[in-house]
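Q: I'm writing up a methods section and want to include an example of the input and output format. Could you take the sequence below and give the corresponding predicted C-alpha cells, formatted cleanly so I can copy it straight into the document?
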Amino acid sequence: MMMAKTLMSVQIGVPEDCMRLRTKIMRNLAVAQFRLHDCAAALRSFELIMDAEPNARDGFSIILCHCRLAHEPQQLKDAFSDLVNVQLKVRLLLG
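A: Here is the clean output for your methods example:
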C-alpha cells in the first residue's frame, strides 16, 4: 500500500499523460490486490483512484470491495451514491 500512496502523493506539476499512467498502474495494483483477497488494500487503492480520476469501473470495484469485506450498509450506500454521481457527470458531459 505504501507504493500506492507514493504514486498518488506527488501530483503537482506532473503532465497529464504521466498522471494517466500512474492511475493505470494504481488500477492494476488494486485489481491484483482484489484477486489476492486483500480487499482492504484494494479498497484503499480504488478510493485513491476515484479521488484522482473518477470513473464507473472503479466505483463498481469499490462496491465489490465493500461487499466482500461485509462493511456497514451505509458505506455501501455511499459507494453506490458516488458511482451514480460519476454516471450522471458522464451523461451531462456527453449531453
